[in-house]
Amino acid sequence: MDPDAVSKAFVEHYYSTFDANRAGLANLYQEASMLTFEGQKIQGSQNIVAKLTSLPFQQCKHSISTVDCQPSGPAGGMLVFVSGNLQLSGEQHALKFSQCGITTKKEIEIEMEMADVLRIGECLRGKTFVLLF
């Protein structure tokens, strides 16, 4: 299986689910998964989804610019790096974001394995604000 095609399909599924129903991301994380949010480490599928669903915006649309991946480990996992734009409902300007995660392969499904780091930046009058997820 082509790693680039698999990672692009995973990314499409992840962000379309994030945009439409963040609670639906629960099955992509494991109990050992960790999300870093502004220096706060959040572990476990339920805790991660609780954090993502509590973000201060309800509607958003991701526009993916790049997807880079490389194989990670003998079990068919991948390191996936994504960058793009995040348009929040009611906002004129999109936010830039980048996200890096490690996936694992379980039969046909791919899920986040160990780590997920998301950065969102906004340029405002020459200043960049960055949130670490």
Number of strands: 7
CATH architecture: Roll
Q: What is the count of distinct domains?
A: 1
Give start-end ranges of low-pLDDT stretches: 122-133
- The succession of helices and strands, N to C, reads HEEHEEEEE
Radius of gyration: 15 Å
Class computed from helices, strands and strand pairing: alpha+beta
Q: Indicate the CATH topology.
A: Nuclear Transport Factor 2, Chain: A
Query: Tell me, what is the CATH class?
Result: Alpha Beta
> What is the percent of helical residues?
10-25%
Count helical runs: 2
| Shape, per Cα inertia axes | globular
CA(first)-CA(last) distance: 30 Å
- Strand residue percentage: over 45%
- pLDDT averaged residue by residue: 80
The main β sheet shows up as: 7 strands, mixed
